[in-house]
Design brief:
Layout (H helix, E strand, L loop, with lengths): L1 H21 L3 E7 L6 H16 L4 E6 L10 H7 L4 E5 L22 H15 L7 E8 L4 E4 L13 E3 L3 H8 L3 E3 L3 H9 L5 E4 L3 H4 L8 E4 L8 E7 H6 L2 H9 L2 H22 L4 E4 L2 H10 L1 H13 L4 H25 L16
Parallel strand pairs: 1-2, 1-3, 6-7, 6-8, 9-11
Antiparallel strand pairs: 3-10, 4-10, 5-8, 5-9
Helix pairs in contact: 4-10, 4-13
């Protein structure tokens, strides 16, 4: 009798213990370098709330914006090392670490923020580059296309000659290919540099005209998206943490609509900035005609070819490289069609999508 009672008690204790373990809260740290009031940080707050709800409280996430936990330059390494469990930054701060993914940073004509975001994630899902194997990639996303904002109007390539343009990464090579002079400068120092005449413009998305107040000193913006580029941002998770998560929690992250959330956020930021810059700051937006856009696009082939050589030196075949670029261009056309069908307006891209045609 006593043995039976002990067996029953043991079973109850085992059931209670296993229940308490399954109910244990998983605490995660989410690092981000954008300020707490930025559209990016506000989006992350919403994401965190929704993920916590979808996991029914099994996951609790603390958000560290403004580089409180990790700066942008240390984000990738910090997530790998476990300083943060989840991190958001851009591969521009790890130049050369993701050479195959850097195909997405080439000037091959990324048209709109909405399209770019869908293409970037498609690229990752299709190729699964081994260069990301140290982390769990939750999402690759894209800033809006780069534009040329300057102190004077630039409608033709010849008008770039003699201008000093703040640009970094492949952007610097693009400016040089167009005949301008690139200047590497932290974005936080750019406003004063323009005021002092040290630089005459920037090659960067439209949103900086508002977020960094550059629209106060740069009154002309050439929307050169036909030949432009976009920057690759990532949302990653520590690999060990990912592997330890319960299957039902992993499914929540896997099925979360990161792509659509990022596409909408990046697109809205740029659209709102364009309208603000035009109506409040008096910025004049310039569009390239078809013939001029072709010239700008042909001029940056040299940048694309240079990266092909780098990939070749790293063991990628010319066939694989060209196939990847061809894949990106086809996905751009597909998602452009989808954006048109859905009637989503953008700050750049073909006239049917352009908010300035309204």
């Amino acid at each position: 009798m006593k043995i039976k009672i002990l067996i029953v008690i043991s079973a109850i204790l085992l059931f209670t213990l296993s229940g308490s373990l399954s109910a244990k809260v998983i605490a995660l740290k989410w690092a981000n370098y954008f300020g707490p009031t930025s559209a990016h940080s506000l989006l992350f707050e919403k994401m965190i709330t929704e993920i916590e709800q979808r996991t029914k409280g099994k996951v609790q996430i603390k958000h560290y914006p403004a580089g409180q936990l990790l700066p942008a330059t240390r984000m990738y390494d910090g997530v790998v090392q476990g300083i943060a469990d989840i991190g958001f930054s851009t591969i521009a701060y790890n130049f050369g670490v993701f050479p195959f993914t850097e195909i997405l940073a080439l000037p091959i004509g990324f048209p709109t923020a909405w399209v770019n975001n869908h293409v970037f994630q498609d690229f990752y899902e299709h190729f699964r580059p081994k260069e990301w194997e140290r982390v769990k990639v939750l999402n690759l996303n894209a800033c809006p296309p780069y534009v040329l904002s300057a102190t004077k109007p630039v409608r033709k390539l010849e008008e770039l000659q003699g201008l000093k343009i703040r640009a970094v990464g492949y952007g610097a090579r693009v400016i040089e290919a167009w005949g301008g002079t690139s200047v590497t400068l932290p974005i936080g120092e750019t406003y004063d540099a323009i005021v002092k005449g040290m630089v005459n413009g920037v090659y960067i998305p439209i949103e900086t005209l508002k977020t960094w107040k550059l629209g106060e000193v740069l009154k002309y913006s050439t929307r050169c998206w036909q030949a432009g580029e976009a920057q690759v941002f990532y949302l990653i998770m520590n690999k060990n943490i990912w592997n330890k998560l319960p299957e039902e929690v992993r499914e929540v992250f896997e099925n979360y609509p990161f792509v659509e959330k990022f596409a909408e956020m990046w697109n809205n930021v740029d659209v709102e900035t364009l309208l603000f810059a035009k109506e409040k700051l008096g910025v004049k937006f310039i569009d390239l005609d078809e013939q001029e856009a072709k010239r700008w696009k042909e001029a940056v082939y040299v940048v694309v070819e240079a990266h092909k050589k780098i990939l070749g030196q790293k063991g990628y075949s010319a066939e694989d490289i060209n196939a990847a670029i061809d894949y990106v261009q086809k996905r751009i056309q597909y998602w452009l069609g989808e954006q048109m069908k859905r009637g989503i307006k953008s700050s750049t891209g073909p006239r049917m999508l352009d908010i300035l045609t309204q």
